[in-house]
Amino acid sequence: MDIMSSLGDGFLIALTWQNLGLAVLGCFLGTIMGALPGLGPSNGVAILIPLAFTLGLGATPSLILLTSVYYGAMYGGRISSILLGIPGDEPAMMTVLDGHPMAKQGRAGEALSLSGVASFVGAFLATWGLIFLAPQLVKFALLFGPAEYFALFALAFATLGGVSSTNQAKSAFAAMLGLGLAVVGVDTQTGVPRLTFGEVHLYDGLDFLVAIVGLFALSEVFIFLEHRHGSADAEGKKIEVGRLTPSWAMLKACTPTMLRTSVLGFVAGVLPGAGASLGSFISYSMEKKLVDKEGTFGHGDPRGVAAPEAGNNAAAGGALVPMLSLGVPGSGTTAVLLAVLLSLNITPGPLLFQNNPDVVWGLIAALFIANIMLLLMNIPMVGLFTRVLMVPPRILMPIVAMVSFVGIYGISGSSFDLLVMIGFGVAGWVLRKLDVPLVPIILGTLLGNTMENNLRRAVTISNGDYMTLIDSPLSIGLWTVAIVGFVLPIFIGKVVKGRMHARRDTEGSTSD
């Protein structure tokens, strides 16, 4: 009953006019961000972080806005997948297989509405999972000492690529780069400047919000400038939607699929590093093997739309569990949300539910509200969202750049931070061209100082004995999982990733 009482208090916080308005704004902007190919939830949240700080929002309103953007982007990713056959982001890749064939058959409206319902079911069940699982993880996390926390952070870095990664070496390089950026500034214990090169502005370290906006938002602008002629042929393309609502028979047939894949996606989201991409892939694969007796998957089967959408939205909710209860993000977008919390002087982890219950339960209540808003918004506004897809990137990208510069300057008032943001934008563009993932860099920047402090604390307590890092059954278990999580993708990562792309290509081509 304590949980339900806390959830009731959360609804009192979330149902204020300000927070309701922020939830509506976040859902709308997030859906648009998700619908635009290439942006996705991580970029969408990163782009709008400056807006939250420029408006002077507190911790709870900021999180409500940005998590509504997160959920909205997860919803919106399926719009371009279904209508154009172009995934808005990687988790929506599997939706192309049956969603786009349905659109070609004149059932685009049905596919969009069905995917909205499946997204609602997945996110709704995942939010309940968050309510009941996160407090249990908190009780488990109270057993952690400095050595166990160091092992936990090592686990987060080791498994960050997930089994869908194709190159663990690049993920490891990105994590080391992020950890290197984290040590920039004055050492809090010795007072010695590290990697500042005599620049006074770097004595306080690098602002991770500046790094996030530069790496994600500005690098997207540079990518567009490089390929500015690539999408010209898609501009102005007329899109037919057709009927807007699925039949009751279709919903009834897809309900078991949505329930099964929601559970599967939630489990995938809770696992550090797995994320929505894996949740979407395994949900589609399981349903295809389980119910596709007639071989209709890949040819416009509604269950092939419902499965990945329920799976990836459930995974998005599941990824919030380790972030709130352990302080370890379960996905790239939750790593960005973690940065927002830290910048507001709120530390996610075991004590968050005790020290900041208004933030946690207000956020969870807002997730329920955002889910309902997204369901009500996505069906009648499908026509508007499809027209957004026809906005030329040459108009959109200058807006992204403007929001980034104005927002960061509004936060810090420092022109030096603008130069640093441009530097991160160029670095992000180069790293993306080299297929180096950006999320480990952000995670290293966020967790590097905490990881270093826990290492120092553990060694100090043990009088300099580094064996204390593997001195308890819990730390040994965490190190074992970290090693397995890092080595396993080397052997099966290419296979899984190849199957994800091969299934989209081969089944997509057979439906033409």
Structural notes for this entry:
The protein is globular, with a radius of gyration of 22 Å. The chain has helices at residues 2-14, 17-35, 40-54, 59-84, 96-104, 108-141, 146-158, 168-182, 208-226, 248-270, 275-291, 302-318, 320-326, 332-343, 352-355, 357-378, 382-388, 393-412, 415-433, 439-461, 473-510, and strands spanning 185-186, 193-194. By secondary structure, the protein is mainly alpha-helical. It contains 21 helices and two strands. A two-stranded antiparallel sheet has the order 1-2. Strand 1 (185-186) and strand 2 (193-194) form a beta hairpin. The chain starts with a helix and ends with a helix.
Question: Could you provide a short overview of the structure?
Answer:
The protein has 21 helices and two strands.
Number of beta strands = 2
C-alpha termini separation: 54 Å
What structural class do helix, strand and pairing data support?
mainly alpha
Tally of contiguous helical segments: 21
Beta-strand residue percentage: under 5%
Whole-number mean pLDDT: 77
Shape: globular
What is the rounded Rg? 22 Å
Main sheet strand line-up = 1-2
Oligomer: single chain
How can the largest sheet be summarized? Answer: 2 strands, antiparallel
| Element string (H = helix, E = strand) | HHHHHHHHEEHHHHHHHHHHHHH
Percent helix: over 70%
Low-confidence runs: 229-236
